Amino acid sequence: MTGGLGMDVIVNFIAAYIDAAWLDYVLIIGGLGLLFVGGESLIRGAVSLALNLRLSRLVIGLTVVGMGTSAPELMVSVQSALKGSPDLAVGNVVGSNIANILLIMGVGALLSPMAANGLGLKRDALIMFAVTVGLLWLGLQGSITRDHGWIMLALLAAYLVGVYIWEKVITGKDTAPAETSTERAGSPLVALVWVALGLLMLVSGADALVRGAENVARGFGISEAVIGLTLVAVGTSLPELTVTIIAAFRRQGEVSLGNLIGSNIFNILGILGVTACITPLRIAPQMAQIDMPVALGVAALVLLIILLAQKVGRLSGLLFLGLYAAYMTWLFVGPQSLT
């Protein structure tokens, strides 16, 4: 509650200096900025803490970095659900998963083709497809209950443990403590400050973005689900976009693919799981009948490309971007765009 009260004070302060017509857009842009900077701060501090605790690079990658890039989606979905906007909460996750593949993976593939011949990548693509099937099943039931949320979190924990065992025992990858890394651990106190600042910015940014998005949706008569599937989803996917572009320029396409697929798994099992544990989520028929099947189709397309072509090339990137443009157009011109 104190976070909401603090945001009220900030909103009133901003409103005193700008035209009321622009206030919601300032909240949206400011919220996106805080989410991006806050996510970076959280990851920096958490990685530094993990290095101080002598955790392995593998564990850091699986937990800190992978989940850290999904922190904006988590904060926005939780805030939306608590404010009584389940369409925005669910739309944010479904839209982020679609954007991660069609938009962000499409951009990355255009910049530099992505190799996809690792067994671990094929494993995760199959898991992403399976959990998306599960999400569609829940959507068709009409809700995600607290019991569903706990099951999803248990599945996420099992996935992380399974990946760790796979990497350490089956493939024999290095899981030695990360102090041998070129990254320096830094001061634990400074790391804690980075984490605290990151969390503060994420909470504030999510609150601002949700407020602004809700008001814009109401003002234009656009449904909250469409706002969640588009503006909010793309905005909260900025960390994944950053990682993908950096990986593309470094010719580390497989790293980018792993990050995007892992993020989609965490979005479904982790973000919706946590959000549902806090407050059950109602799934709108439109979301279950149209948008979730689109997310499943996208997951199936990526799985087929990885299994058959074993790379995501520029042609696939163009296909992804074309499909995303078509999906965005349909969202805004179709009858589902209206409240």
TrEMBL record:
GO terms for cellular component: plasma membrane. One of its GO terms (biological process) is intracellular calcium ion homeostasis. It is found in: Membrane. It is a multi-pass membrane protein. Keywords: Membrane, Transmembrane, Transmembrane helix. Residues 25-164, 191-332 form the Sodium/calcium exchanger membrane region domain. InterPro entries: K/Na/Ca-exchanger, NaCa_Exmemb, NCX_ion-bd_dom_sf. The chain crosses the membrane at residues 14-37, 58-78, 98-119, 126-144, 150-166, 187-206, 226-249, 261-284, 290-308, 315-333. This is Na+/Ca+ antiporter, CaCA family. The lineage of its organism: Bacteria, Pseudomonadati, Pseudomonadota, Alphaproteobacteria, Caulobacterales.
